[in-house]
C-alpha cells in the first residue's frame, strides 16, 4: 500500500516521497487509519518496522490540516538517542510546513537547556522527550500543556525496565484528560498491560511480529572460545570488503575499548561508543558512522534499540545478550524495513544455553558454524552443559579440551 492511499495531506506525501519512503509497512498500514480516527492505540511491533512514521505521520497530518496553538503532541521515549532520532524524522516529514519540533533530553550543556526552554515556552508543536528531563522542565512552571491533544509512549517496555513507571504516571497527571494516547512497545509483558489500563481509554490493539527478527536478516552463529573472538571478527571484516557499515555489539564498556584497540586499521576507521562518552561525543561518533566515514562501530546496548541507521550490512554480537529480547533488537539494526542484512553471533560454551532460549523465543534455529581451522578450535554445540553452574569453560587455555573444529557443529541443528 502506498502512503497516498492512507488519506494523508498532499504536502506530507511530498515530504514522505522526498525522504525516500515508497510503500507503507504493515504497522503503518494498520496504525495510521486508527490514529486518524482518534482511537487510543496499543501497538506491539519489533524494531525496524517503521513505528516512528506509523505514529507521527497521522499527527503531522492533523497539525497541517487544523493548525495548533501551543504544544500539541508529546512523545515520551527512554533515551536521548531515540529522542534525537525521532526529532530528526519529524523535521524531515515537516520539511514543507512551518511546524516546529524539539527534542528534550539530558546530558547537554546550558545552551541546550536554554534552547529547550525557549521552544517549550513558546509552545513547539511536537515535543519529543525523555521522562526525567521533561519533568525537570515541567517543574520550572513555564511549560503549558492544556493544548496537548496527542501523547505517544515509544519503547514503552524499555522505559519500564529502566524504572520510569512513576515518572510516566506523574507526567500524565499534568496532561488534559481529553486526549489521544498511543503506546508502542516491542514486547507486551504484564507491566505494560497495567500501564495501558492506567493511561489509555478503550484502545485498539495491533500486533506485528512479536519478538522475531525481520525476514531479511540472515542469521548465523560461530561457536568460539573467547580468546579467538577478536581474530574471528577481523577475519569476518576482511572477508567482506563490500560491507561499508558494520556494527559490533558487546555487553560491557571494557569490551568495547578492547575490541576497538584490536580492530584498529589504517585502511578504515573503527570507533567505539558507550556511556563513557559525553553526549556530544556520542552524537559525533554516530554521525560519522551514519555518513560512512566510520566503517566499524563497536557499541554497548545503548544502540540496540531506537537508533535509525540505514543500510547496516553486518551486525556482530561479540557475546550473546542475557535477554532474548535484546538479541532481537541488536540484530534488528540490520535489514531495516525491506532491506537485507547479516547478523553473526559469537557463542562460547557458557552462552550456548542463552542462545537456545533465544531460538525458542524466535521459534527458529540459527545456523551454527565452527571457527575456521586456521584460527583455532571450536567447542561443540552443547547448550545443556553451558547452563550448569559447575561448568568450566576451557577458553582461558586457548581452547584445549574443546570440541572439534568441524563435525557435529557444522550441521547447524541444535540437539534438543
Average pLDDT over all residues: 83
How are helices and strands ordered from N to C? HHEHEHEHEHEHHEHEEHEHEHEEHEHEH
Which structural class is indicated by helix and strand composition? alpha/beta
* Corresponding CATH architecture of the largest domain: 3-Layer(aba) Sandwich
Q: Which regions have little confidence, pLDDT < 50, spanning 5+ residues?
A: 386-416
CATH class wording of the largest domain? Alpha Beta
Shape: globular
What CATH calls the topology of the largest domain is Rossmann fold
Task: Let me know the number of strands.
Answer: 14
Biggest sheet character: 7 strands, parallel
- Straight-line N-to-C gap: 41 Å
Oligomer: single chain
Q: What spatial order of strands do you see in the largest sheet?
A: 3-4-2-5-6-1-7
Number of helices: 15
Written description of the protein model:
The protein has 416 residues and is of the alpha/beta class. The protein has 2 domains: 3-208, Rossmann fold, CATH 3.40.50.300; 217-411, P-loop containing nucleotide triphosphate hydrolases (Rossmann fold, 3-Layer(aba) Sandwich), CATH 3.40.50. Helix content is 37%, strand content 16%. A 7-stranded parallel β-sheet has the order 3-4-2-5-6-1-7, sandwiched between helices. It has a 7-stranded parallel β-sheet with strand order 10-11-9-12-13-8-14, with helices on both faces. Helix 2 (26-36) runs parallel beside helix 3 (51-66) and helix 6 (131-140) packs parallel to helix 8. The two termini are 41 Å apart. Residues 386-416 have low confidence and may be disordered.
Amino acid at each position: 500500500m502506498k502512503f497516498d492511499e492512507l488519506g494523508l495531506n498532499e504536502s506530507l506525501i511530498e515530504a514522505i516521497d522526498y525522504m525516500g519512503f515508497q510503500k507503507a509497512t504493515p504497522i503503518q498500514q494498520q496504525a495510521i487509519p486508527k490514529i486518524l480516527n482518534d482511537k487510543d492505540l496499543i501497538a506491539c511491533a519489533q524494531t525496524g518496522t517503521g513505528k516512528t512514521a506509523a505514529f507521527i505521520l497521522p499527527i503531522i497530518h492533523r497539525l497541517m490540516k487544523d493548525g495548533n496553538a501551543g504544544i500539541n503532541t508529546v512523545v515520551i521515549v527512554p533515551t536521548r538517542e531515540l529522542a534525537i532520532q525521532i526529532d530528526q524524522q519529524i523535521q524531515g516529514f515537516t520539511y514543507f510546513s512551518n511546524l516546529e519540533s524539539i527534542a528534550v533530553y539530558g546530558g547537554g550543556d546550558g545552551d541546550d537547556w536554554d534552547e529547550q526552554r525557549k521552544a517549550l515556552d513558546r509552545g513547539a508543536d511536537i515535543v519529543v522527550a525523555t521522562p526525567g528531563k521533561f519533568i525537570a522542565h515541567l517543574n520550572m512552571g513555564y511549560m503549558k500543556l492544556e493544548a496537548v491533544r496527542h501523547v505517544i509512549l515509544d519503547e514503552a517496555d524499555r522505559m519500564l525496565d529502566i524504572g520510569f513507571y512513576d515518572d510516566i504516571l506523574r507526567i500524565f497527571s499534568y496532561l488534559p484528560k481529553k486526549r489521544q494516547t498511543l503506546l508502542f512497545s516491542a514486547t507486551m509483558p504484564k507491566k505494560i498491560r497495567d500501564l495501558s489500563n492506567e493511561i489509555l481509554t478503550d484502545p485498539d490493539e495491533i500486533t506485528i511480529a512479536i519478538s522475531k527478527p525481520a525476514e531479511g536478516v540472515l542469521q548465523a552463529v560461530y561457536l568460539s572460545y573467547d580468546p579467538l573472538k577478536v581474530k574471528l571478527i577481523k577475519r569476518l571484516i576482511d572477508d567482506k570488503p563490500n560491507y561499508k557499515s558494520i556494527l559490533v555489539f558487546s555487553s560491557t564498556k571494557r569490551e568495547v575499548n578492547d575490541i576497538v584497540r584490536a580492530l584498529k586499521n589504517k585502511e578504515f576507521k573503527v570507533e567505539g561508543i558507550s556511556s563513557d562518552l559525553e553526549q556530544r561525543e556520542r552524537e559525533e561518533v554516530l554521525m560519522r558512522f551514519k555518513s560512512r566515514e566510520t566503517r566499524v562501530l563497536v557499541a554497548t546496548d545503548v544502540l540496540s534499540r531506537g537508533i535509525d541507521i540505514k543500510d547496516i550490512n553486518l551486525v556482530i554480537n561479540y557475546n550473546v545478550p542475557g535477554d532474548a529480547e535484546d538479541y532481537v533488537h541488536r540484530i534488528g539494526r540490520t535489514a531495516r524495513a525491506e532491506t537485507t542484512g547479516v547478523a553473526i553471533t559469537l557463542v562460547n560454551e557458557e552462552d550456548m544455553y542463552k542462545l537456545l532460549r533465544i531460538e525458542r523465543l524466535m521459534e527458529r534455529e540459527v545456523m551454527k558454524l565452527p571457527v575456521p581451522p586456521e584460527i583455532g578450535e571450536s567447542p561443540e554445540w552443547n547448550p545443556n552443559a553451558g547452563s550448569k553452574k559447575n561448568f568450566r569453560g576451557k577458553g582461558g587455555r586457548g581452547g584445549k579440551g574443546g570440541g572439534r573444529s568441524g563435525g557435529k557443529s557444522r550441521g547447524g541443528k541444535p540437539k534438543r
